[in-house]
Amino acid sequence: MPVEAASTWVVLPSCGAVVVFSGTARDHSTGRTDVSRLEYEAYEEQVVPRLDALVGEARRRWPDIARVAAIHRIGLVPVTESAVVAAVSAPHRGDAFEAARFVIDTLKATVPIWKKETWAHGESWGLEPQHILEIREQSADAEQDSTA
Question: Which residues are CB-contacts of 148 (< 8 A; sequence separation ≥ 6)?
Fold first, then answer.
């Protein structure tokens, strides 16, 4: 499981804080109570460079963080299993919480991964189009939100 692997990998003796976010596949969506299957596709040539860039930006913003894991599965993901993981270790909890939140929010906004939902009466590759942001755009939005 990606959650267990990420959780274990980020632990270091120098870090007193580990924050792990796991986004699990759920059985419902907006207007749909019977989602039975989720499938993810990615623009793979862009995924790794964008993940590297978002980790780099997290390290720039929180220089004391130690390890960062950002994982998103592709292919079929059964309901209740983890689809996405963000894990961060740091000497102190404040940096770990803030950086983990930044990593998951930035991953969702900047990494080109699409979700297909299947339910009793149909299937769809998403409810609405999603504009993929550049890391610097998401970073600027996050900085504005934190100062408001």
Answer: none
Residue 51: φ, ψ to 5°: -65, -40
Domain, as residue range, for 35: 2-136
CATH number at residue 72: 3.90.1170.40
pLDDT along the chain (148 residues), means of 10: 91 98 92 89 92 97 98 95 97 98 95 90 70 68 54
Residue type, 13: P
Report if pTM > 0.90: no
pLDDT score at 123: 87
Nearest to 1 by CA among 108, 83, 109, 86: 83
Is residue 40 within 8 Å of 120, Cβ to Cβ? no
What's the rounded Cα separation, in Å, for the pair 65 and 13?
A: 13
